[in-house]
## 1
Amino acid sequence: MDAFQGLITGFQVALSWEGILFVLIGVIVGTLIGMMPGLGPISAIAIMIPITYGMDPAPALVMMAGVYYGAVFGGSTSSILLNAPGISGTVATSFDGYPMAQQGKAGKALAIAAVASFFGGTVSVIMLMLLAPALSSVAISFGPPAYFALMLMGLTAISSLSEGSTIKAMISAVAGIMVVTIGIDPQTGTQRFTFGSVNLFDGFDFLIIALGLFAIAEVCMLVLNRRNRSLSDDQKLGSIKLSKQDLKEMSGPMTRQSFVGFILGVLPGAGATIASFISYIFEKKIAKNPEEFGKGSIKGLAAPESSNNAATSGAFVPLLSLGIPGSGTTAVMLGAFLVLGVQPGPLLMTDRPEIFWGIIASMYLGNIFLLVLNLPLIPYLAKILSIPRPLLISLVIMFSLIGVYSISFNTFDLYMLLVFGALGFAMRIFSFPAPPFILAFILGGMMEQAFRQSMTISNGSLAIFVNSPLPLSLILIALLSLVLPAFIKWRSRRNLLKQQ
Amino acid sequence: MLSTINRRIGLLLFLIASGYLFLSYQLPNYPYSPVDADVIPKGLGFLMILLSILLFFSRAVETEAEKAKRNIPKKELLVLLAVFGMIFVYILLFEIIGFIVMTMIFIFFSSWFLGYRAFKTNIIVSILFPIVMYAIFVYALGISLPRGIIPL
């Protein structure tokens, strides 16, 4: 099946009534959850996973993808209106979006964000469509050593790119793999760390980890910030019309940053947050009047918005074609695939073309929906921001509890949800990043399997990882991504000391 | 010795990693298999011990923002603890009393406890939410939730 035929198959899925309905549900739910300050795309996806039980995989995954990019789309609304980013990928949006709103141009800011997001999303879907099949056909020849090295690179990349201390990010990642070793080893049947408890035989379901480490931990932060301002009824949004001059001004940053965002989205470890910051700094550096940035610049708003949405589709490239997520959010997406019995990877394109192409085709549709939904309806959608925090907290707790209960109908899992919620909260308080943990948890099992397969092939010799060029170069990149930032830090500290 | 928070966390992680490593050495391994079930856990245990030592001796100074993040008033911690307590009670009882009734009670009281005083809205949400969720899960998705004392 060539790409053109594939895309036709995809549009058949996306444009069926089921496809349209679930894309719509996905993007609306994603937008609404993404808007809530404190609740990110990981929580949005994890909360929606139980809804997909028993559904046909193609429409279910089309919906989940919609939740993801819808959340990134929606995150900008609270950044602009409340200066409280809905998700970390839209922090940079608030730099110029909030000042613009304070000048009484909230409507215009929302419109710019919507158009830039649409543009970034659409450009990167086109690139996803071109790149994912190509990567799939290359990846089909990857053996276990290459896969192991790829995953290792993903983990080191996310650790070194995490905010704050790299050591803490690595601890987070190692802890994630440690948790996945609990349960019966799938290859030998040995019980590991189960203490004989039947409840631990199957290990922890990833939904417990995702909802605990993110949704429940985010609820804890909401409890602490429950008195923060929510949207007041009398807040005026102003006109949402954009002039030709506005569109002209944003076209440059939008086009450039869509590409930057896409590339950063494809690379492991980066994702929407880093993409939006880099794009913001990029545009500020090349701008003729950089002093306008931070005071309500159209360019400063369009750049991170096109970039974070482009990164979102970009992140689907490694997920769909290699089956390896590069970020915390795509790790939970991978979980959503596995729940439905779909294994993404190089075979997905040929074995399940309706899913592979369906998701890609649905993204065109989803971005159009988001634009249409966001432009005229944004004043109404933004009303959700006026939901009182205490009520929101209670409802999110309930969604998480129902979600976990519906996997196993076992209250033990609910207690574990509380335990991981407390852990996630402690990690936030003590500045340990949570995305490396969830990525490691998802990749851990696959990594162990790839490692053991490699060792079986090589009869126990580690040389298999360095004898062929691909695994060797990936492992070198992985090491470099850990050592390089530390080296740069050390050098800048030394220079600082010299100056003093 | 335990002057900074990173040192205390480092020590705690060291202890946890040692426990994990100890348990890893109890795992059985069989001859003729190049990599048995114990290899990865042992590797992880040593890696964690190394990382905890690195954290203990790291010279990174806590930034003001990081300090502010963990500086939570005691009263707020108690509020959080109470929310966890309510969830605990919910889990303990909802299979016995049933999803709908327990969820109604939980939403109403936790929202009220956290400072939501719009009495009427709170009651409406606490009644509607569990019923709608129950309908979606049980009738639309075919996932059964505990009925408890209500004969539905």
Note: Chain A has a mean pLDDT of 90.
## 2
Amino acid sequence: MRSDAVVVGAGLSGLVAALRLAEAGLKTTVVAQGVGSTHLSPASIDVLGYAPDLVESPARALPAFLAEHPEHPYARISLELIEQSVAWLRERAEGLGYTGSLRENLLVPTAAGVPAPTAVVPASMAAGDLRSGGRFAFVGLRAMKSFHPAYLAENLAQAKLPSGAGIEARAVRITEPGSEPDVGALDYARAFEDAAFRRAVASELKVQLQSGEAVGFPAVLGLDRHAEVRRELEEALERPVFEVTGLPPSVPGIRLFRALRSAFRRAGGRLVMGAVVVGAGTSERSVTSLSVRAAAGRTTAYEARWFVLATGGFASGALHVDSYGEVRETALGLPVAGVPPVEEPRFLPGVFDDHPMSRAGLAVDERLRPLGPEGAAAFHNLFAAGAVLAGAEPWRERSGNGLALATGFAAASHILEDAS
Amino acid sequence: MQTLDSEPLELVRGSLDHCVKCTICETFCPVSNVTPLFPGPKYVGPQAERFRTADGTFDASLDYCSGCGICTTVCPQGVKIAEINAKARARMKAERGVPLRDRIIARSSLMGRLGTPVAPLGNWFLQNHAFRALLERVLRIHRSAPMPRFAGRTFQGWARRHPAPANATRAVVYFHGCSTNYYEPRLGEMTVAVLEHNGFRVLVPRRQDCCGLPLQSNGLMDDARRYVRRLASTLAPYARRGYDIVATSTSCGLMLKREAIEMLDLGDDEDLRVVSAHMYDICEYLLWLHERGELRTDFRPLPITVPYHAPCQQAGHWMGKPALDLFALIPELTVAESDADCCGIAGTYGLKAEKYDIAMAVGARLFDQVREARSEVAACDSETCRWQIERATGVPSVHPIEVLYRAYGLSG
């Protein structure tokens, strides 16, 4: 299969890079073992949330943060490029109504009742901004076992905000629907697309609400017709309605995936799912093709001029650590940076400890090209983006989607420079 | 393309330990998205598999899996979800028995052989409302489910009489499958014409029987193995001589590429392995030719709009949608690519009275998109999906090869 550019991975960074390339007129193919982490993560763009204290402004905090972490992927791209990537996403995912900027983080409630810092959120989460406090009612749906509004509200009411403002939060419950034994986020998302269901929910809810309360739902307010669902609920309840993200699957994440995938298709992009990269054809310092395991007993060569590895980190299998502590990059066998020596501890006891292994990944040059053993770009036409990059700890920094978006965007920028 | 000899076969059941319960498969499952009767691929697959023992303890909801395979294709961890489910279903059926209906509808080549000599009568019966009502009552085959029409002749019969082209410069083997042989011989003729137009001599091995897929999907694994082994032994001598094999039935091609190895544990069948390494979906093959500069592109303008649906079994080839790249070579052709994942029929699933409504609900998004395109024809790579689309929308549905055939201006 021949293309101008091949992007490996269908998570946020891969789809962003691929969409940019396809829209610029490059014949672009995404090959992916499966769907990426868009389906698991909230669709908010967290650029920098903790450094390690709560970050109020990513734009202001980033210079000092990068001085302290010169190996961080953000150190390979400019603040301006991060801002451009956010502006670009806002336009591409127009239907999701992204709002916010790098100037100031919003604080939005998690399902556990923590005010979480994030730079840019879809419209469906915007009314949940807690920065100046307020009164909130969180809706429990009877059959949804992964969302507990009383737990959320109790924790949130005790939260200390930087502004000093107070939060009043309480749980309200509704009984709809009455009969299903095991309903997940997607089932509810589909149910909310049904106008009769929405009306039933709104009428049961309305009598329980107090004046001045904004209403937080679990993030299940519709899939394809989410804007209409939320608007109608806001009209019926006569107050702002917002979504709170929780356990997977993430309905806002699915909306983001679908928005990017259909834009990519419209731009003429090819998406090949189930495809596992098992090696590369190279010549001098160029990658000429990727070998992809076909369903048949053979491999297929995907030829292109440029390649982007957006394969993810340990969780997706892009990085693999074996029982001897050896770490490898599984697609092309590139050198992995940031791996602690074998005799030293790799992980610490606490979940949010500073694990020695946590920053392992591909070290890259200033154009996001993975470094070879001699410390220079391994190939002039191979780029990397997203969670495969070394130097970040997204779960402690709260930077995952920000990194994915910005590095995917930047990798595409470098390719477009080369192409022009 | 190189042959992959050294890759160890991934253990199907062993892959369940890679499941991280991310639920991505559940968000894509076309069946659990429309009915609570199927609790979803993760639940009946990697999760329930841990509780299955030699003694059974099966959850009967497993039977509502349509076997479309989308779960395996979207799983980011490489868990063989559909394959785990297919094997578990077979064990459940072995314990509880397979209904007579499933034993009948799973034998497509036998049905074809029986129906072909009496095609007018057979077709009359299968379109007759009273007979279909009776069929539903007695056998639980839904009265509105799509049924193919016997052609009354076979593709094999045509191929035997068809003279080899004098100017062929290369040769390829055509695995046509039962549906082309008994129901859509025109598709086979057009495939031969398209390949001959590109300088091929098309070899059509005799005794091409069923690939075993319908038997496998109905839990009749031993019968399926017999069919696969027999078909593989028919095709293997060609593959060993270096011929590539093309298939127009995308799901049957996939069966020989991968599914028989994984679902029927036939990885030790040497014939099947060499056939797998040489098996191509027809559009995959033509696109491969095109990229090597070996496909003729003397296409005439075809100023029509074609809604195109890539079937889920085709996604299981892990090759994207090569038909779209071929369509892009045809001047003035507009393609409306469907974003629906499944038409619902899943081979024989949608024929069953208890599953018909589910199949129609699964396909609803696709049917809407096909109707909205207001086109004279739709395109899809799998025969049962075409019959389902036609029946549900009234829009005639053809294999992408037929679009290429028309654009080449071929006849005969």
Note: Residues 297-407 of chain B form a domain with the Rossmann fold fold (CATH 3.40.50).
